[in-house]
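Q: Structure tokens for this one, please.
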Amino acid sequence: MGMPSMPELLVILAIVVLLFGAKKIPDLAKGMGKGIKDFKKAIKEDDEEVAKAKEIKDETKEAVAETKETVKKA
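A: Here is the predicted structure, written as tokens:
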């Protein structure tokens, strides 16, 4: 199933205009844009949290290795 062609897009647009009216379409587009922006922001924050958790995990492994060396020397 590929992308809809131009006539199909025009029919969809006409149905949207009939359902919501021409005045509501900018509000709908604004809402969709805000939703996409919030989604991208959440993805970025999640990626930052994952990177931070990985960094903490690496630091913890290094600390454990140093502690083991100290215990062996004692």
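A few notes: The longest helix spans residues 25-73. The CA atoms of residues 28 and 34 lie 10 Å apart.
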